[in-house]
Structures are given as C-alpha cells and as structure tokens.
TrEMBL record, chain A:
<feature type="region of interest" description="Disordered">
    <location>
        <begin position="123"/>
        <end position="158"/>
    </location>
</feature>
<feature type="compositionally biased region" description="Basic and acidic residues">
    <location>
        <begin position="149"/>
        <end position="158"/>
    </location>
</feature>
<dbReference type="InterPro" id="IPR002035">
    <property type="entry name" value="VWF_A"/>
</dbReference>
<dbReference type="InterPro" id="IPR051928">
    <property type="entry name" value="NorD/CobT"/>
</dbReference>
<dbReference type="InterPro" id="IPR036465">
    <property type="entry name" value="vWFA_dom_sf"/>
</dbReference>
<feature type="domain" description="VWFA">
    <location>
        <begin position="326"/>
        <end position="513"/>
    </location>
</feature>
<protein>
    <submittedName>
        <fullName>Nitric oxide reductase</fullName>
    </submittedName>
</protein>
<dbReference type="Pfam" id="PF00092">
    <property type="entry name" value="VWA"/>
</dbReference>
<feature type="region of interest" description="Disordered">
    <location>
        <begin position="180"/>
        <end position="200"/>
    </location>
</feature>
TrEMBL record, chain B:
<dbReference type="InterPro" id="IPR027417">
    <property type="entry name" value="P-loop_NTPase"/>
</dbReference>
<dbReference type="InterPro" id="IPR013615">
    <property type="entry name" value="CbbQ_C"/>
</dbReference>
<feature type="domain" description="CbbQ/NirQ/NorQ C-terminal">
    <location>
        <begin position="177"/>
        <end position="260"/>
    </location>
</feature>
<dbReference type="Pfam" id="PF07728">
    <property type="entry name" value="AAA_5"/>
</dbReference>
<keyword id="KW-0547">Nucleotide-binding</keyword>
<dbReference type="Pfam" id="PF08406">
    <property type="entry name" value="CbbQ_C"/>
</dbReference>
<dbReference type="GO" id="GO:0016887">
    <property type="term" value="F:ATP hydrolysis activity"/>
</dbReference>
<feature type="domain" description="ATPase dynein-related AAA">
    <location>
        <begin position="30"/>
        <end position="164"/>
    </location>
</feature>
<keyword id="KW-0067">ATP-binding</keyword>
Amino acid sequence: MPELPEHAVLLRDIERTSSTLFRALGRDPVLRVAAGRTDLGAWRDEELLCLPQWLAAFDDASLNRELYLWFVALASSFEPPVDGDWAGANEAAITRVLRDRPGIAARHDRLLAAFAGDVTRLHLNPPPGASAGAARRVRLRDDEDDDAREDRPRRTDNITHTVKMDKPAAVTEFIRVTREDDGESDEVALPPTTGAEGTSAGARVRFDVDTPSGPHEDIEVGVGIPADEWDYRKRVLLPGHCMVQEFIGRSAGGEALPERLHKHAHKLRRQFAALVPQRQWLRGQPDGTEPDLDAYVRLHADRIAGGHEREQNLYIAQRNRERDLSCMVLADLSLSTEARVSPAQCVIDVIRDSLMLFAEALTATGDRFGLFGFSSQTRAQVRFHHLKEFGANWDDAARGRVAGLKPGFYTRIGPALRHATSILERQDTSLRVLLVLTDGKPHDIDYYEERYGIEDTRMAVLEARRRRIKPFCITIDREGSSYLPHLFGVNGYTVLRRPEDLTARLPMLYAQLTGQA
Amino acid sequence: MTEKDRELPYYEPVGNEIDLFERAWRNHLPLLLKGPTGVGKTRFVVHMAARLGLPLYTIACHDDLTAADLVGRHLIGEGETYWNDGPLTRAVREGGICYLDEVVEARKDTTVVIHPLADDRRMLPIDRTGEMLRAPDSFMLVVSYNPGYQNFLKGMKPSTRQRFVSLRFDFPSAEVERSILVGETGCSEDVATRLVDIGRQMRVLKNVDLEEVASTRLLVYAARLIHDGMDPVEACSAVLVEALTDDEDVAEALLEVIRASFG
C-alpha cells in the first residue's frame, strides 16, 4: 500500500461499525460490508456493500469518516436498478434516506458542500464486472499497485461503461486476479461464483485440488445417513438432500501420546483438573438450608460462659455444582488444512495436536467427550470420521486414529453440523458443547459456496441451538470476522491469529464455554 | 373504563392473553409464559394479580436457589428453632399467585418441588415440618422463561414443562409498541415512532452483533428520559447502546442508528 496521507481513514478501523450499521439500517442480518479496491469507489449488489479500503477524498479525517458512514446509510436504502439506471437508483435512494432518516440530512449537506455540490460523488457504483460473482473476486486482492485515486466515475447515466472505458487496467486486473485465484491454494479464496454458475471457472479450480485422502485407510461404516440442507433462496430445508458417510479411522495399531506433547499434556491435565467441581457442605454459614447445630451449641456455650458475642453463622449450606456436560470436538479435515502455518507445521498438524491435547485434558475433568472429523465431496458424500466415541475410552487405539488423520476434500459444514448435532443430542447431559475447529469458510465443489454455504451453516447452527446444543467455532481464518458473527453469533466463535496458540488457549476457552471461568 | 381498571398497573394486551390467564386460573391450571426479556411478562403477571385481586409472590430464580428458599426453613431464635415459610408456601397458604421468573435458571432439584403443585393434586408437602398443604382454589402457579436466552444449556425438564398451559410473548407490533411507549411515559407520538423504529433496527442484529436486543422495557426507559427533557441521542445512548453492548465498534454503529433517526 502506498503511503497514505494523514487524513486518510482506513476501512479496517471502521469496518465492524459499518457492517453492524449496514445490517441495522437495512434490517437484514445477512447484509455484509466488504473491503474493495480504492479505485472502484463504493459499490453494492444484492448482498454486500463494498467499500474502498481507505478514503482520502477530503483532507479532513472526520469528513472521510462521514463519507464512509454516508455510503453505509445510502446503501441500506438502495435498491440496485433492474434497468441499469444507476443514477436514478441513487437519486431515489438519497430521497428515501433523507426522508426516513432525518438525522442523516446534516451529514448529506456537509458532504455535498465539501464536494462542491457534485452529488454524483455521493453515489454508489454498480458492481464491477457483469455478474455479481465476478465482482466479488476483486476483493481478494489488495490494490497495492493502485494509487491514491479517489475519483469515482463522473456524472453519467451508465457508470458501468464509464468504469470500463476509464479503466481498462481494472478490467484486465479482474482477469488476472481470477487466474491467480485459480492457481493459489483455495482455503482463503472465496468461491468466485454462486448458484447456477457453479460450473464455471471456480468449480474447475476445485477439481485441481481434489486429491483423495486415501479412503483405504479408513473403514466406511453403514450405507450413509441422509442429512438436510438449507436452501436460502427458496427458504426451505431440503430434507435428506445430502448423504453423510461415516468412517471409523483405522488405527495404526495403537499409539501412545507423542513424546513432544507430554509436557504440555501434563500441564493441561493439571489446569483442567481444577475444573472438576467439589460438592460439599459448608458449615457455619450466615445463610443456608439447615441449622448448624454444632455452631449453635458453641454459640450457646460461649454465651453461658460469658464470652464475646460472635457472629451468628449458624447454618449449613451445600455448594452444589454438578458438572453435567458432554463435549464434541468436530475437526475440519478438508484439504485446505494442508496449508502451512509455519515452516514446520501445517494446519492439520495443529488440529491433530490440539485433538490429542484436548482429549488428554478432558480425561482429567471426567467430562464426557467425543472426537470427530469431517470433510465433503459434493452433497453426495459428507465424510464424517469417528475418532473417539462418547462412550469409548481415550486409549492408544483412539490416539492412533487421531495420529493417522489426513486432510482431503472440501468443507460442507452444514450437514456435518447437523449430523454432529444428532449424535450430541443423544448424550444425556444438561450441557452439550459442540466445538468446531476449522480453517475457513464453508465450501464444496458443487453449488455449496459463498452465501449458499454460509446460510446453510448458519441454519445448522441455529438448529443445534434450538436443540439445546451450544456450538462454538474456533477458526484460524483471519477473514473469519467478516462472516463468523453471522454464522455463530457474537459470542459463538473465536479467531486465532496464530494457530499454534490453540493449545494454549483451549483451557480458558473450555472453562468459559462450560461456565466455570 | 371502570373504576377498577383505572387502578390496575398499565398493561397493553397484544392478544387473548388476559382471557387465557383468567381461564387457566379458574380451571386451576398452572401457566408458563415464554418470551424474550423485557416484553412485559412480569408486567402482565402483576397486572393480572391486581385484576384478580390476589396477592402476588414473585421469585427471581437463579443458580443457587434451593428448595428451602422456596418452601421455607428452620431459623434459629433464642434457645429454639422456628419454622419460617418461604414465598411459595406463603402463596399457597394465602391462595395467591406464585410467580417463578426465569424458572430455567433454577436448579433441577429445586423445580421438582413445584411438581405436586402443578398437577391436579395441587399439594405442597413440607418435609421438614411434616405438613401437607392443599392449595386453595384461588392459588395459581405461574412460571416464565426466555427461550432465546444464551443460557439455553439448562433448558426446562420436559416433565416440568408439560404441566403448564403455555403462552408465548414476543416483541409487540410497531403500533402496539408505540402505544405502550405513549401510554407508559406520555411521550409524543413522534418520539415513540422514532424509538420503535430504532428498536426494530436493533432487533435485526440479534445473534449476529448483539446477544440481547432492545426490549420494550428499554424503549420505555428511553422515552421516559426524553419526555423528561433529555437530549434524545444522549438518552438512547445511555439506555440502549450501553445496555446492549460493551463492544466499542458495535456501540458506535448503534449510536449511528440513533443519530440517523434523531439527528
């Protein structure tokens, strides 16, 4: 990024506020704010508002900030035109905003005056490129090669054309970006197309990374279990739309805890042991269910002996904290977990170690727990790996299954969550925690990507909650904060900046989740 | 409006809830109210108790609430112990309404004591004194809980739930909420309209940016302060924004929503 003037305002600093505001004003929880290239101005399509990564239209930071907020307010009343008349749509939206939101009028006037009356500077642009899908690809890239150009397309009735004529570079940029996206690892890449376009370039790319994890190593069990999927466009739950295939990992003859994890495991076991509750009667309390006769006799004897009046703590209370819970850990085993997090470690290594250590630690609490993993290959096969069942012991065979984990395929979270929910639901405890470890967004090579996958996952999370299961997501996708609140709710997830931190963060997270912190 | 109505605590009915409550009471059926926080469950019970002319015992349930807290316990006096009725026992003896607010917050073993009261036995056994109380006809048990509450971990035992007639409360429609604000605080229609609009915008954020959303109660608080002459943006900031979030970015967004309405 080129050196920014002092008065520039970065979207990064205002992003959370903007997206919350966008949702509130638009009254649609699905709306999102995304970061775009600075030369494209502010643009929106049906589901997202793309704001430039930074704004320096004025040499006054507070005005630049107001301009961001203006775009958010305008976008919330904006309806993308069917006939391509973006100028008309902008004018209609401005009229609506000023009418419905009297508080915005002053801002509008200030900004308009600062733009010397040029109202087009307050307009939203159409999405770059022909399709919304193509447009979304742009935000994958930073615009490091672009300069501090804040000028938006000038007054015109068809801004789309203006963009193309003014900026041939921008158009070729798209194409290049698309190709780069293809070649790079797919774990942070947004699937570039949605819905019916699912067979285009984006889908082809997915085939390239589709290397099987070696199913011969796992034992397929059963004939498959149908799972539902939520279609947000039709707003219906498609019953039995996906097929969950269960696998039992083949343990390589059993394995002890790796030597390098011993020290860490020992520490975690000690920390987790502190979570084990004590059930005890406390004597001599100021309040309680039963009289404490011993205390009373002592008090009485003191009185007769003419001793000092002591505090009248004459009751017995029971501190009664049962630990009545089960915890399922569901790990993402998709191919993207093969990505490196450091020269020595891949995501999958971190997941493997975390599962090992977590299991060691949970054994110390006596809580019921199960370890499972998932990946997917279209809706026909959602792969669900049983690593350690709830009833089973955490033994060398189970450790062997975890040690043998290999990444493969894609991330269809929704149906996997539903299947996990049904397993967890059978655990007869009052608290049921579903801990999802993942490294990225929901996606699969059929149509399961972008909003479709996100909506389905969100629905699966809501279903789990309705069944009194507490889902919580731990992710290492740094872009996670743009979609995770929507999926798991404000307190339902955490983004790890360094995956290596997972093992260190686990005890605290677990204590919070199970209400003991 | 009869003389009696005028003395009742203000309550704006949204459906057939008053009728249902009265029928449940006449037929000796316990009642379960469910709905989000601040939509008027407690107010409704207070209103109904006054309407029926019954004493009301309200118990806010929590983790440490024991059966003894409900039923009663022996206290120690000068040289002897004596029995002290808990609120549930008192409600039964007097034939009043016992209202257990947020009943899922209570421990499982606590809620079991209401079972024999909640079915057709209508009995309250007091183990420690050997008494067996029969509830008079006018006694009624009412419990409430908030299904959307983040603390869904506990839930309510099905065996407890199935003893109740249930009534669902939700955020009132915009018109009803407006008339509640005007009725409760005497604020202007315009202020009420804007507050209701702000409330509805914030409710969209539930489970995404906010854990809890703006209840009618909070809107009433804001209306009250504005009616008292406080600056609307400041009043909403203190009552709504700070009550709903600790996150500065989200707070900033909520404040923008308020500024957009009030300027």
